[in-house]
Design a protein that fits this description.
alpha+beta, four-stranded mixed β-sheet, 4 strands, binds FE2/S2 (inorganic) cluster
Length: 157
């Protein structure tokens, strides 16, 4: 049996080979790698760059342009804060800043130890109860900094 790292390397090579004949293969490859691992492991980018004959900087540029791609695994919990209009009008901006300060991460960041990942989202359909957040798929309305602190603590962050 292959060591985990060698297995990962050969699986990524397989994914690249499966998609490299496509027109514009970069995004399909990144999506497929992320679907497999939950993120794009560091070793994947140079492999993709080599296979597509582009520089590593170019590959990195494409990946960082699309916020859907992560270079590290998601946390055990994912907290999404609504950044759309109704929530913005009801203090979501300040709530987001409070969340970043409380968790010590920026958007798409994961707290040390991996408890919680912070993501922006654009409308959760809970505008009447703005500002709204979503924790692991569950929407929560009228969240202030104190409630957010409680949510983070319960999530282990
Ligand atoms: S604008 Fe935030 S839930 Fe709709």
């Amino acid at each position: 049996m292959l060591a985990p790292q060698a297995a990962q390397h050969s699986r990524i090579a397989e994914i690249i080979a499966e998609h490299s004949a496509l027109e514009g293969p970069m995004l399909p490859i990144l999506h497929a790698v992320q679907a497999e691992y939950g993120h794009v492991p560091a070793e994947a980018l140079p492999m993709i760059a080599d296979a597509l004959n582009i520089s590593r900087a170019e590959a990195q540029g494409v990946m960082s342009f699309y916020h859907d791609f992560r270079d590290h695994p998601l946390g055990r919990h994912v907290l999404k804060i609504c950044r759309a209009e109704a929530c913005q009008a009801r203090g979501a901006g300040a709530l987001a800043e409070a969340a970043k300060a409380r968790l010590g991460v920026d958007w798409h960041g994961t707290t040390p130890g991996g408890a919680l990942t912070l993501e922006p989202v654009f409308c959760l359909g809970l505008c009447a109860c703005a500002p709204a957040v979503m924790l692991d798929g569950q929407v929560i309305g009228r969240v202030d900094a104190a409630r957010l602190d409680q949510i983070a603590t319960e999530a282990g962050a």
